[in-house]
Amino acid sequence: MWKVFYDLLLQAYEQFGYQPLFIKIALAFIFIAVFATLIAYIVILVRRWRAYIHDKRLASITPKIEDLITEEVLLNEKLGIEPVDEIEFNQDAITDKIYKQKWVRQAMIDILISYRKNFRGEVGDLLRKLYIDMNLTKDSFDKMKTLRWEKKIRAVMELTQMDIQISDVTILPLTNSSNSSLRAAARNAYIQLSKNEPFKFFDIATEPLLPWDQLDMFKIITTTKDIQIPNFSRWVSYSTNKSVVSFCLKLIAYYDQQSAIPAVMELLNNKDHYFRADAIACLGKLSAEATEPKLIKIYEHQPLICQIEILKAIGQIASGRNLEFLKQELAYSANFDIRMNAARAIISHGTEESKAIVDELLETSYDENKLIIKHCLNPLIK
After folding, report:
1. What is the crossing angle of helices 242-254 and 273-285, to 10°?
2. Is residue 255 assigned to a domain?
C-alpha cells in the first residue's frame, strides 16, 4: 500500500515538473490553502475536545467543592461565635488528595471567588480564610510569575477579589505595563489593596490612562471602603503624564478639593487647550468664585472649546457678577454653541436678576435666540 502511495506521489511530482510556471504557482497556492484549512480544522477540533473534557471534569468536581464550602463555611457552627481567624477547618476535608490536582485547585479558586462576590461580613472573611488555608494563594502568585499576560491578569483579579496583599515590587511595574489590559487590572488592584498610598502608581505612570480605564478606576475609587484620598493637586502640579493630570482634575472636582484651586489655575497658562478646557471645567465644578475675573480676562483669546467651558463655569459659579457678559454673548455671538451655553449659564443663576434678563431677551431677541432660551428653560431637556 505504501509503495502504491509512493508511486502516485512520484508520478504527480513528475507531472508537476512538466507544467507551465503559472500552473505550478496556482497548484502551490491550492496545496497551501488545503493544508492550512486542514490544520485550522484540526486545531478547532482539538480545542473543542479539550473544552468538552474540561467542562465534563468541572461538572463532576463542582458539587464536591460546593459541598466543602457549604460544610466548612456556610454551615460552620462556630461562625458568629468565635473570631474568624480562630476558626479551624476540617483538615481531612481540605487536604483531600483531589485538591492537589492543579485543575481542581483552579476550580476551587473560581468557585470561592464566585461565593465571595455574594457574601460579605464574616462569611466572606471565612471564605477568604479557606482560600488561604488551602494555600491557594500560592497558585495565584505562581501565575504572576508567568510571561503570559492573560495569566497575570487572572492572578491579579484573584488576589484582589480575595483581598490578598501584593507587594509593591510585584504590582507597581505592572501598573505601567505596555499591555493595556494588564495595566488596567494592576492599577485597579493597587487602588483596592494599598492601605496607605493607593495612588502611588501615578508617580511612575508613563502609559496613558485610557477613557474606559478612567471610568473603571473612578468607580473603584468612589466605592472602595476606607480608601485614603490624597490631595490630587500634587499630580496636577508635577505629573508629566497628561492623562493622569486630566483624571486628577476629575477627582478634585468630585471630592471638592478647594485647596487644589491654585494648582488648577496654573493650568490656565498651559499651551494645550484641551488641558485648559479640563482645568476650566474643574474650576466651575469647584464653584471657584475668585477665579471668575481671570476666566473673563482670558475668554477672548481662547479657542471655542475653552470659551464654552468658561461659559459653563460662570453658570456653575453663579456669582451674578458676570450676567451682563453672558447677556452680550447670547445676544451678539455668531456661534450657536456659544449662545446656547450663555443662555444656560444665565438661567442656571436662578436669581431675580437673571430671570429679568431672560424675560428681556425673550422680548427683544430675534427668533433663533428666543428658541434657544425656550429650549434651555425646558426642565425636561438637559
Report:
1. 10
2. no
